[in-house]
Amino acid sequence: MTDKEDQATRFAREAFASTEKMLKATQLFAKTRDDEISVGVTPKKLVTRRDKVELFHYEPLTERKVSTPVLVAYGLVGRYTMADLQPDRSLVRSLLNKGLDLWLIDWGQPGRNERWLTIDDYVDDYIDAAVDRIRKETGRDRVSLLGICEGGVFTTCYAALYPEKVRNLVITITPIDFHADVNDKAAHHGFINLWTRSLDPADIDKLVETYGVLPGEFMSSVFSMMTPMRSLTKYNVDLIDVIDDEDKFMNFLRMEKWLADRPHHPGEAAKQWLKELYQDNRLIDGSFELSGRKVDLKSITAPVLNVFALDDHIIPPDCSRALGTKVGSSDYTEIPLPGGHVGLFVSSKSQGKLSQSIADWLAARD
Amino acid sequence: MTDKPPTDKATAPIGDWTGLWRSMVDTSRLMTQAWTGSVAPFMLGRASERAGEVNDLSAAIERMTQGPQLADVWDFDRKLALAFAAWIDMRTRLANFNAIASAPWSEASRRFADSMAKTKLADSGPPDWRKLFAKWAEISNEELIKNQRTDGFLEAQKELLHAALEYRSRQNDISDAISTLFDLPSRRDLDEITRQLTELRREVRALRREKGQAQP
Questions:
Q1: Sign of CA dihedral A50, A83, A257, A206
Q2: How many CB atoms lie within 10 A of CB A301?
Q3: B48-68, pLDDT tens digit by residue?
């Protein structure tokens, strides 16, 4: 057989194998039912519900080793289930296994009815009410806060406005300086910062006026645009790599389920998020106001742990790192971890490091 | 209109309105079909070749609808025409955006071809297609991201957003008019109710704070 024939044979064999895998992927999709793909399943008890906001208490998985309760707050751009995607990739489950007392505030699925809710309402009302309820239930004076992404901004604001109720503040992948992306040399980092600054404030007003919300689908399309080739190949070529491994395939579907579950962002809160923070960068310069009070980062006196991902394309690391020079607390720790925005929570590599770092840090300040 | 409902003196106006409404919907549907199926694609195709310019057809409809408002006629038709003009404008902006968004593919192809030309074949023959695909994807990703950060891309995207929001806003005007016609609350009415409710909640929260009561 000549070289050319060898190459042709090899090409034909590879093409056939890939086609076979694509066929297998189609069959797997056809036989998998959505209710077989579960996310956010770590057992928890509903404590209270008001409007669409629910406060949950996670059931302990081991003996309690850290007595101060920890309230987990995700943002409004996605769902908390990213922190509890599957049993072996769950920040929540890992922390419970390390003896933490975990509580969760879930914003539910805001829609047009929540159009007028502002960040003031989320911080001054819902988070404050949740903190008071936890204090009442546990008999503790103070609560530790664990904020994720936009939820990290909410908890940071809360810690600045209500320092007397906060024992520790842990923030993960949280933007503090919304313009620090300009220092980031990686071209794939910080497109949302750039895109938001390219809009006129009136564009954002018109978007909210028209839809009543910042539509979840709209934000999903912006996120997809940030990883253009992955968005084009994840349902075809990339599937070839996961189709022979059922665990990998189910991991892929769980991630898809989380991505699909993107709620609408309440309209007025979205205006604050995009105009006052992303465009005007008011949190870092101390001019951001909630319920008539300026959020002064120097007022944060609780110990602070700031965890960010070094290859975070959505929140560039410098945007998070900026808190270090602004916070009032003398006990400030930064933990940069390898990985991306979502990978920090769901990749098998970072899982252990993230939960261990948080648990150790909280245990030392209980 | 052949399926006019049975009428008596009390229900005749409702029947007439229903008939009129159905007639308007049918006419609108037929107009839309005619435009989207034949003339519009051709005209929009030409319009997209003049990227960045204001579409003449859209501008003409806009001018037509900016005429004097009449008390009893034309208002609903005006709303339909405005939505149609906005749709045309959005399609034009979309074509402009697509032209800019797809520009990096040719540069990606050129870079990929260069990369392949420099690759020396190993003893085992050419690399498998997955490696080639991965290289192509890596180059394309770089080019697409580089393009996204250009002023031209951001401007085209902003203009598309403007046009899409204008179209949606005019659709909302139509749905509000329909709601009013059938005595149903419109989106604006519901927005107003939720605004009042949210403000009421804030007042209750402030009162609770004044009295030293915890939030529920």
A1: positive
A2: 17
A3: 555 455 567 777 777 776 776
Q: Which of A214, A220, A201, A189 is nearest to B149 (CA)?
A: A189
B16 touching chain A per CB within 8 A: no
The question of whether A149 is a catalytic residue gets the answer yes
What CA–CA distance (Å, rounded) separates B63 from B84?
A: 13
The first and second tokens of residue A280, run together, are 């005007």
Please check the confidence at residue A206 and state whether its pLDDT lies above 90.
Answer: yes
**Residue among A170, A255, A213, A178 at smallest CA distance from A76:** A213
Nearest CA in chain B to A227: B141
ipTM: 0.88
CA dist A109 and A123 (Å) reads: 17
Query: What is the dihedral angle through the alpha carbons of A82, A85, A91, A92, rounded to the nearest 10 degrees?
Result: 100
CB contact under 8 A, B215 and A129: yes
Chain A residues 161-190 with CB within 8 Å of chain B: 187-188
Which domains occur in chain A, in start order? 35-363 (3.40.50.1820)
How close are the terminal C-alpha atoms of chain A, in Å? 73
Contact A206/B133, CB-based, under 8 Å?
Answer: no
3-state secondary structure of A2: coil
Q: Which tokens is A63 given?
A: 């003996």
CB atoms within 10 A of CB B110: 12
pLDDT (0 to 100) of residue B70: 67
Would you give the DSSP letter of residue A299?
Answer: G
Q: What's the number of CA atoms in the CB half-sphere (13 Å) around residue A263?
A: 23
A chain contacts of residue B128, beta-carbon cutoff 8 Å? 10, 14
Q: Chain A: residue nearest B164 by CA? A: A207
User: Residues A227-251: pLDDT tens digits?
Assistant: 999 999 998 888 888 888 888 899 9
The H-or-E segment that residue B55 falls in is none
Which residue in B126, B129, B194 is closest to A113 by CB distance?
Answer: B194
Question: Which residues are A104's β-sheet partners?
Answer: A56, A72
DSSP label at residue A295 = -
DSSP type of residue A302: S
Q: How far apart are the first and last CA of chain B?
A: 57
CA B6 to chain CA centroid, Å, is 40
Q: Measured at the alpha carbon of residue A85, what is the angle toward residues A82 and A86, in degrees to the nearest 5?
A: 165
Buried b (16+ CB within 10 A) or exposed e, A66-83: bebbbbbbbbbbbbbbbb
Instruction: Tell if the CB–CB gap between B145 and A188 is shorter than 8 Å.
Output: yes
- Distance from the Cα of residue A290 to its chain's centroid: 22
What stretches in chain B show pLDDT beneath 50? 1-7, 51
The pairing of strands A289-290 and A293-294 is antiparallel
Q: Which stretches does DSSP call E strand in A195-348?
A: 213-214, 265-266, 289-290, 293-294, 304-309, 332-337
Percent of chain A with pLDDT over 70: 98
Q: Are B43 and B27 in contact (CB under 8 A)?
A: no
Residue of B138, B162, B215 lying closest to A132 (CB–CB): B215
Task: Note the pTM of the prediction, 2 decimals.
Answer: 0.86
